[in-house]
């Protein structure tokens, strides 16, 4: 299946991760994703790679992890011990063909061991969903990716997102509802935020004296930020 018959209204820009201790969590993700760590004076830490789309912003927040993350990252690794050495802790190393871990602040991630590790260490961005087909179809239309299903209806993915340094966005069915702000979110660029709203996004915060981007949520309430396409 493909959503590329429609003109995308936005483009993938980069990724944001919330952290109580931004420098420490940035060092962890810098090691795991093989990105350069660049602190800023405002407390935000940038993780930089070969393209702007590889950038991960680690943003300081006061709230610690209190519930299972609704968005988590899957990564490529030569050996799960490398991720553990970087600062992860094991959560489930036996039940799946991947290793379920926690980052230094308790957020979940999954490590997929590879004989040959790709240069882009980020494999997938995984989102818990009430209706995975609906939200995956929405993001495929917004970003211009290719919509695929696992055949069960329980998992849908958006592959081939233009410019994205990962293989796909994965949306998996879960029974529990969203209760808190996601600690991981996407940034996008768009020529017109109204196009995102017309597609079904909800504006949560307009640009003001503090922020120059628009904070929105997708049809299932997942936060993301939209920047002007300059």
UniProtKB/TrEMBL annotation:
Gene3D superfamilies: 2,3-Dihydroxybiphenyl 1,2-Dioxygenase, domain 1. Residues 15-111, 124-226 form the Glyoxalase-like domain. Coiled coil: none annotated. InterPro entries: Glyas_Bleomycin-R_OHBP_Dase, Glyoxalase_6. It holds the Pfam family Glyoxalase_6. PANTHER family: CONSERVED PROTEIN (PTHR35908:SF1), HYPOTHETICAL FUSION PROTEIN (PTHR35908). This is Glyoxalase-like domain-containing protein. It comes from Nocardioides panaciterrulae. The lineage of its organism: Bacteria, Bacillati, Actinomycetota, Actinomycetes, Propionibacteriales.
